[in-house]
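Worked example 2:
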Amino acid sequence: MGSEAAKHADFSGIRYAQCWEDADILLDALDISPGETALSIASAGDNTLSLLTKHPGRVVALDLSPAQLHCLELRVAAYKTLMHGELLELMGSRPSTRRRELYARLRPALGADARTFWDAMPGEIEAGAGAAGKFERYFRLFRRTVLPLVHTRRSIDRLLEPKPRDERVAYYDEHWSNRRWRWLFQIFFSKTVMGRLGRDPAFFRYVDVPVAERIATRARYAVTELDPSQNPYLQWIMTGTHTTALPHALRPENFDTIRDNLDRLEWRLQPMEDFLDEEGPGTIDAFNLSDIFEYVSEDNAAHMLAEIATAGRRGARLAYWNMLAPRSRPESLADRIAPLPEISAELFARDKAFFYSAFVVEEVVG
């Protein structure tokens, strides 16, 4: 997330208890081959774990937040200790009355710091570990206080049920997007409210666009052009759980592969720049950069990309999201990093995590 972000944002608590970035397009973008080395921004750990399904030789997860690394470590312990259905219960993807019991079973697999951290959060465990972050609490507030002012439970179910595109468009335009919805959306997803309740005001340091309008446009896309019945991110926002779809790392077909490859994963509380300096040039094949450039200046983003170009092997892929601050490879690095606009556009059109404004795929060329 870059040293600049560490100077301005608070990383002491869980900011994201689950990864709000679409691993399906991430994996297609990075195109990891067996045995390769990947660097991944940890976040809550889901997409880092998804990288293991490609059988890399090594995945290194980095974060500036101990709490985020504790989220990753909790997942690692769960994959080692629990069955797939139990993992879904622990995370909150499925109903459960035994989450504390499940935690007690995986607890010995945690390191001392992570164990202390999660021992102090029994309420969060009981509610589902995937709901324990500030961002998830923000959506819970939306779900419990804003959404009921506009739509009934039946209306929400109808929005999420499978139907052809023309019916999705008609339902959204004629029923869902009424005047009250548009008004409350503009307020709740404004830069001020989202900065205070959902993310961190520092994350909007380089944002100078109408935040709510951008997100509203992408939300309409997510429920009309894409199928809500296949969108786990939208389902969690609207219902507080996963109903008919799961994120990549939680799908049953990926559980055993992730568990079998956990010995290839390591995690570090370390700025990316420091890690790249330690690794040396030409050592990394794939970079899951989350939305790290959202939080830094254009000059700092260019500096970080130059370090990535040095650390990446020729042909190494970079993938990252822009939410509201536009970032991409600057012209000064044209001889070292090449944009892949066709791949970026095709994958962004499939992005189920709809609140981002761009998905950027680039490649190290020299």
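The radius of gyration is 20 Å. The first strand starts at residue 37 and ends at 41.
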